[in-house]
Design brief:
Structural class: mainly alpha
Largest sheet: 2 strands, antiparallel
Shape: globular
Strand order of the largest sheet: 1-2
Strand content: 5-15%
Number of helices: 3
Order of helices and strands: HHHEE
Distance between the termini: 30 Å
Number of strands: 2
Helix content: 25-40%
């Protein structure tokens, strides 16, 4: 079985490749969310982040096909672009990443 990289290895590898803003955001998210004992890659774990009050939540690493849902004060969500979720949909009335 392949050994999972530690949080420190992921962060240092990310920052060695680039010193740019994207690398720093990625490194911050890994340091905050990633747990090598939990299933999923660091990207999957960060994409599933539920800390919506984080200033970096909207710019956290995500797969290119994932929809961005913006939480509102009444705990509903609005997809980027202003489209409302369909009545009875999974995202209606929920805060989700």
């Amino acid at each position: 079985m392949k050994r999972r990289r530690s949080k420190e290895e992921i962060i240092s590898g990310t920052l060695v490749k680039s010193k740019g803003l994207r690398a720093r955001v990625d490194a911050h998210c890994v340091s905050c969310v990633y747990d090598e004992t939990v299933p999923g890659t660091w990207r999957q774990q960060v994409e599933d982040c539920q800390v919506i009050l984080c200033a970096l939540w909207e710019v956290r690493p995500r797969s290119s096909g994932s929809k961005v849902l913006i939480p509102t004060l009444d705990h509903s969500v609005t997809p980027v672009g202003g489209e409302e979720p369909a009545k009875g949909s999974k995202t209606e009335g929920q805060i989700a990443c």
